[in-house]
Input
Amino acid sequence: MSVEQMCCSVTVESSCSEKHHPAGSPLSCSGVVLSYQSGLVLCSGLLFSRFLLDKQCIRLNPNRLSPHKFSNNIQIYIDYLEESVTRCTSKSSIRPGCPTRRKAADLLMMINCLEFQVAFQKLFTESELWKFTDLDEDNKNIYDLNFLSWFAILQMTTDSQVDPVPWIKSTALAKGRSVVACGSPFGSLCPDLFMSTLSKGIVSNLAGEENALILTDARCLPGTQGGGLFVNDGDTAYLVGLIASPLCWRSSNWIGLTLVCSLHLILENILQTASSFQSRGEILPHSFTDISRVTTHQRSENENYPMVVVVNCGQVWGSGIVLNPCLVVTCRHVVSEGQFLTITLNIGQRSQTVNSKVLYSTKNSSPYDIAVVQLQKPLSHVTVPQISTTFMPGEDVLVLSYGALGKSCGPSLTSGILSRVVCLQNKPVMLQTTCAVNCGTSGGAVVRAKTGELLVSVLEPLLVRFAQSEDPAVFQDMDNAADEVTRVWRLQTPQSKL
Output
């Protein structure tokens, strides 16, 4: 079964008019078909928040909600792709124009993934003005964001004998691992075009107990909530998580990343909740326990990336690259508020914070936005990075920085390609990449995905001279850049609109 066939679209309609939601106006999102044999489907619980009868019950922090807690007037439909469907043969069962079947479904129960909820509440605070819905302000009451950690278990009737979806635990993941996201953007709108759309990316970061929260740069559009995140191992794609929300905005800054909830923790919460009832078979089909055992060997891919730190200077913070135990390079505008600052390095669950001072920063007239920071106390266990001097357009690259969630749970990765290398006198002076750059990434490292090298080639000869003389005046060469360099970096000028 292909990745596209594992995913589906879920639509909820109301048979009578309710407040803020007129009859016949459907809501839809993406979902994952756990088993075609039993017809079990998982999707985002956000879709059902509008139909909760008692809005206050969610404040009691329940782990489970039964179907009786929701309106009796809702109708649920699953649209999915079948391998056996090669042409549209019946308008009653197949949507016009594409090999998509529609089946009615029942809500078995709603489950709260507690580990994801704890990680989410720790990382995202109201003061930081995060926005997770794609709705207009006029419709902001339709979805209750308290349901972001909730997932709906649905069941439809099918006659398929396809094996249950294979899955893998998120504890096998490491930052930088390639992933594929599958969902139906805009839900059930235009399934001919959007049904089970794929996007590729990497694991940008991991947080929470047993990696409950997965951050990826795989691009997910509105409506993909509830879709699947997959990892490939050989010829098989394994489901590792469900899309909780595309990250939309933070303090009016666009964040091009996606939040994913670990699948194995969703399954564990379901089974733990079901086991607390004597008649488990009345809550979930027995085949659900079989699905919970379908997994693969746990493989973790550890990459040795350059060390990136948080640079705090007054009210401004950014990222910096550790060049050696006593030196960090960052951007000039990050340290513009003062001469003294702090450097924080996070390694796993440990962190080191060291007082530092700006050794040298380029002048405002310089095209280079660079500052060199000297630490008053050396960092321990620092790996000195290699410096790359050769680059090829089209090469895979990563950006490693404390953007988005990084300040709370470590530096994040975003992937892309090297789109252009700008050289002057046969020396590279600027790279252009397709990596998404989010707030807080200033000073992050551009990393070559295969070799683990970072770009500070412009600084390399100056760093060698500084190591010999310990005179910060050697960095003044960056203030005397040629006119050609200034023209290359003209996007930094105040009149630039980019």
Observations:
- Confidence is low (pLDDT under 50) at residues 85-97, 135-142, 448-455, 492-498.
